Amino acid sequence: MKQYIMLFFCCCTIFILAGCSTVTPPGAVACGGFRGQGCPADQYCDYPEGANCGRADATGVCMPKPDACIQQFDPVCGCDGKTYSNDCTAAVAGVSVDYPGECGGEQIVCGGIGGFLCPEGMQCVDDPGDDCDPAHGGADCMGICK
Fold first, then answer.
1. Are residues 90 and 130 in the same domain?
2. Structure confidence at residue 105 (pLDDT)
3. Lowest-confidence range among 11-15, 59-63, 93-97, 138-142?
4. Which burial class, exposed, middle or buried, applies to 108 when counting CB atoms under 10 A from its CB (0-12, 13-18, 19+)?
5. How far apart are CA 136 and CA 122, in angstroms?
6. Which of 4, 52, 99, 110 is the most exposed place for a label (fewest CB within 10 A)?
């Protein structure tokens, strides 16, 4: 049993680290990740696709906030869990895009053995839809960000 637990832990660690990009373009300032490195007030942390808004130590790049956007409705879900009319309006608000489309249909997971963090302004709560209960011996339960 011990070998299976260790194998599971190693596989999870490799999976998490494989999804993390540590390469920052020349001249760019890295942001986010476990250290929570911020950006200047006139910039925002732009996470690349698949970076899960900086969870699992993924980093982004500080980008300038746009001054204006075109009026085009192409909704995106921001890393703050709010829906924006397009990626530009999210950037004006200083928020990176989590995924295309409106927020709500897809829940953001947190906690667990990987210690996934929630976006700023949200907190990790127990997922009532799973069988893992931290109050009854369920260590390393995954949660959802609310």
1. no
2. 64
3. 11-15
4. buried
5. 24
6. 4
Rounded Cα–Cα distance for residues 122 and 92 (Å): 20
Residue 25, pLDDT score? 56
> What one-character-per-residue DSSP string does the chain give?
-HHHHHHHHHHHHHHHHHT------TTPPEEETTTTB---TTEEEEPPTTSGGGGGG-EEEEEEPPS--------EEETTS-EESSHHHHHHTT--EEEES-TTSSPPEEETTTTBPPPTT--EEE-TTSS--GGGT-TT-EEEE-
Q: Is residue 68 part of a domain?
A: yes
* 29 and 101 housed in the same domain: yes
pLDDT tens for each residue of 71-97: 899 999 999 989 999 999 999 999 999
pLDDT at 136: 64
pLDDT of 32 reads 87
Are 37 and 17 in contact, with CB atoms under 8 Å apart?
no
Euclidean distance between CA atoms 99 and 74, whole angstroms:
12
Between CA 117 and CA 64 the distance in angstroms is 25
What's the rounded Cα separation, in Å, for the pair 47 and 33? 10
